[in-house]
Write a sequence for this structure.
């Protein structure tokens, strides 16, 4: 296993490429992906996620101090990329040769609802695992044509965002399966559902949740971990939980700020009218 120092510096090296990677993707898209129509639900998000991997790799190679590269997972699984040592064996099953893993998500700023889901279980994440979120939109490149344009990229450790998500899930009446009281009544040592999210009605949120927790009309609810939806705060408990996590963790704060910056309705809806009034009042007093 690689040392924490190696892993930490590999994480920083990848994070440091973020702005260059964004510019490279946009230059490539403006040159190659020129089209008409501004299609939403085009699958373009998946293409941008792959481009993120290629360009991050390019920038990592250019950085002289960097002795790492990205590998694309060969099979379908939760993570997209692994940060690995070049010229060394890499075994995804045992994680040997690996420094950390990366999940890349994308959201179109103009889409009504994002399909991006961050629904990996907190217990499946390593502290160095990264979450990357691209926010993009179609941008005019001439009078007739548009191309995909990445507005901003969030790059941060995934664990604090998972904790924020889970705390808010509980404030909505959601819960997590405990292997000692699994709804499928599995023996604890055999239970594979530990940590699986259930919604307030007890319906499983993921296809891998307990069989007895299927919904009346759906196999699973699939609301858990929506990149915007997970920050919704419709109760006083939820607002408190969001603010507590935001104060507790700089990463949670960065993630909330990132979403609020690019999806201002989310910030508007988080605060109550009296809070906005108080804010305006304070600002007015300061101006005077
Ligand atoms: Zn179970």
């Amino acid at each position: 296993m690689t040392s924490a120092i190696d892993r930490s510096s590999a994480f920083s090296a990848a994070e440091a490429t973020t702005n260059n990677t964004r510019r490279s993707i946009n230059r490539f898209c403006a040159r190659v992906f020129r089209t008409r129509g501004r299609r939403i639900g085009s699958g373009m998000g998946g293409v941008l996620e792959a481009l993120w991997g290629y360009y991050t790799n390019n920038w990592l190679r250019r950085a002289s101090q960097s002795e790492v590269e990205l590998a694309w997972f060969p099979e379908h699984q939760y993570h997209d990329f692994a940060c690995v040592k070049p010229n060394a064996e890499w075994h995804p099953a045992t994680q040997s040769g690996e420094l950390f893993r990366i999940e890349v998500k994308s959201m179109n700023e103009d889409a009504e609802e994002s399909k991006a889901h961050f629904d990996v279980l907190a217990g499946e994440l390593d502290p160095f695992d990264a979450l990357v979120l691209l926010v993009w939109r179609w941008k005019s490149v001439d009078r007739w044509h548009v191309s995909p344009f990445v507005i901003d990229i969030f790059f941060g450790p995934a664990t604090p965002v998972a904790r924020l998500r889970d705390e808010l899930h509980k404030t909505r009446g959601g819960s997590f399966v405990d292997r000692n009281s699994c709804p499928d009544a599995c023996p604890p040592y055999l239970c594979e559902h530990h940590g699986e999210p259930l919604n307030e009605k007890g319906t499983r949120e993921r296809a891998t949740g307990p069989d007895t927790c299927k919904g009346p009309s759906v196999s699973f609810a699939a609301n858990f971990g929506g990149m915007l939806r997970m920050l919704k705060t419709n109760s006083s408990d939820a607002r408190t939980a969001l603010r507590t996590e935001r104060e507790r963790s700089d990463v949670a704060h960065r993630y909330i700020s990132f979403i609020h910056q690019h999806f201002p309705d989310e910030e508007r809806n988080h605060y109550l009218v009296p809070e906005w009034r108080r804010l305006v009042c304070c600002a007015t007093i300061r101006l005077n």
The mean pLDDT is 90. Residues 172-224 form one domain.
